[in-house]
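To close the chapter, one final illustration. This time we ask the reader to focus less on the individual chains and more on the assembly as a whole: which components sit near each other, and how the overall shape emerges from the parts.
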Amino acid sequence: MSNTLFAAEGSEFNSPGPGDFEYPPIFGEGTILTKPMLIVILGSLAVALFFYLAARRATAVPGKTQFLGESVYGFVRNGIALDTMGRQGLRYVPYLATLFAFIVTLNIAGIIPFVQFPATSRIAIPLFLAAISWVIFNTIGIKKHGFLGYLKASTIVPGVPKPILGFLAPIEFISTFIVRPITLTLRLTFNMFAGHLVLLLFILGGEFLLFEKGGFVGIAAGSVSLLGSIVLTFFEGFVQILQAYVFVLLSALYIGGALSEEH
Amino acid sequence: MTADPPEDPRRAGENDAWGAFSLVTGGVVCWGGVGWLLSEWLDNRIFVMLGLLLGMGGGLYLVWLRYGRS
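The assembled structure is written out below.
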């Protein structure tokens, strides 16, 4: 299938597609390290270093790094954990804060110049993070209610008429244990996927119009497109932080749901 | 239990929205899936339709049970 948008005088524009998310190994054939992998590794190191620097030599009057670190941690603590779970949520702040910082870093990689690829648009990464959250909220639920008690709490809504319990319980089961991690994964992956695709289209399309197609229409449309790409880059930055927040918020809600007495 | 601070109502709203979404999806996937299996087995497409509708209805009913009353 060809992705040709404009077939103008000799040169043609190949619109970006899913192929732009496939990277060859950096060091050539036979090696396995690709750009998304490198971003994940560097991102992990950056997050670790950030929290290490923020916590090292912590003082009552915080320095810049400590202030930033405390802002991120405080935001997750007060804005997510306390809000969704109350004081019992404080135990899970370290996980949630790390998760938030990690996802933000991998998302933001999409608009950092020269990196410019959101590693979270590769489905394996959100899938794995969602799996971790899934294991955590189920473990907490089982610890709190016991295996059968947890299963009962998460499949039976109080007030369900007995005769159709067998009809409704499987729905609850699938919604809790299967739909949740899948939506968690897909929401993050495809927000990042679509955002990156839109940026690629505006930037590559603008470049093509301006430098390849030329003429009055090409220059006018290309300029608008490139200017638009700047606006969209800021918008993407907003979406990237928002999606990290949503992922962490939902993880917190699931943990809170597993903790609560009646589900 | 110790007294927890009351939940932020906006948070609760977000919670409900995603909860409702996953319940309806769960209903469709669950009984739609069963209907599909039945239709493969009995070679009659009507079961997919029945399963999807029943699942959707069940999901909506669960949404009402969980979030609609109070």
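Chain A has one domain: 4-259. Chain A touches chain B at residues 82-84, 86-88, 157, 159-160, 164, 167-168, 170-176, 178-180, 183, 249-250, 253 (CB under 8 Å). With these observations in hand, you are ready for the problems at the end of the chapter.
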